[in-house]
Amino acid sequence: MDDYSKDFLSGDDAAKKLAVKRLTLKIGTDMKQMTVNAPDWSVSGLEEDPALTGRDTSFAAQMARELLWEQERDLKLSDYIDVAQT
Q1: pTM
Q2: 10, 47, 50, 61 — which has fewest CB within 10 A?
């Protein structure tokens, strides 16, 4: 985060824009690595957070579904596979 915050706080508008783009790309890449396509199913990069130690990607995906669809019945069964694989 230091790399991004240093550029973002530099005062240069072009550097700020680039920092946001780089961070957004990193977030997207990291999220893809944590999906069912993840090579090891671990929550890679998050192990240093004691609250997440021992958790796996499927648990993280389940948590995301529960946040987005508070009631299980709100997620249509026909959409479940697409959501689960996102």
Answers
A1: 0.41
A2: 50
78 shares its domain with 44: yes
Q: How many domains does the chain have?
A: 2
DSSP state of 73: G
Same domain, 24 and 41: no
**pLDDT for 38 beyond 60:** no
Q: Token pair for residue 20?
A: 């946001």
Q: Are residues 26 and 51 in the same domain?
A: no
Q: Would you put residue 60 in left (φ > 0), alpha (ψ -120 to 50) or beta?
A: alpha
Contact 47, 32 (CB under 8 A): no
Residues 41, 17 share a domain: no
End-to-end CA distance of the chain: 25
- Would you state the pLDDT for residue 68? 85
